[in-house]
Request: fold
Amino acid sequence: MASTTRVTRLRLKVDLLGRLDARTADDRHIRLPGRHAQALFALLVLAHRPRSREAIAADLWPDADGTSAGSLRQALWLVRQALAEAGFGPGEVLDIDTDTVGIRLDARIDLDVTAFEACLADDPCGAEAAIELYHGDLLEGLGHECFAAERERLSDRYEDALAIVADRRLAAGDPVGARQAADRLLERDPLREEAHAVLIAVHGLIGSRSQVIRQYRRLGGVLARELGERPLPDTEAIYRLAIDRTMRRSIERAALLDADRSPVLRAVGD
Reply:
């Protein structure tokens, strides 16, 4: 029983999407002091395998002139202290030797990045659940260049998921949900034409003609300014359909208004 309890307690919960947050299995925070200690811990968690000290130092301090080894020792000491204060013994989480540093291969880490990507790859989970796991771009607040490529890759996957969700919500008859997903995507990338197209379609379903035209012009403006291009043919078709839908609704409302008008009595002269 004691062994089972110990294995459970050794599990780490680590969030890297947004600001770094590391917790024990019973939700006690592991406090990593300083940006370099946080960056080192994140780098080790993302790799989840031992790496050479030289490679780690080069990632974290690419411009250091012979001082990176000392900086790595200091950051590693801070990480070890933080783990010790959280109740982990030496060697229970980190695998350290003379040449390499890493997370133990048998360490159990619940990582939000892994959960996000697993959800995208799993149809029962899918894009809807995945976007709710994405609480921000990778390691916000840490400007180390070594995270830039992975940050961009994950950001692209999140934006693609938003586009999928917007389309699916629209197809499922949920224009409000579709608009929310499209708005979130355009906040991140105003050039995503598919998000503009979803908003044009949404305004066609539940908005006004002026909203349809305004969204279409917004798209045309950003494409012309940034790319020197016009909207794609399928976007043009969505725009025409949206305009047609607003016109049909206007005609239907006008017919109802005419039907509701009271008869007018006219006096007929002799």
The two ends are 108 Å apart (CA to CA). The longest helix spans residues 233-260. Confidence is low (pLDDT under 50) at residues 1-9.
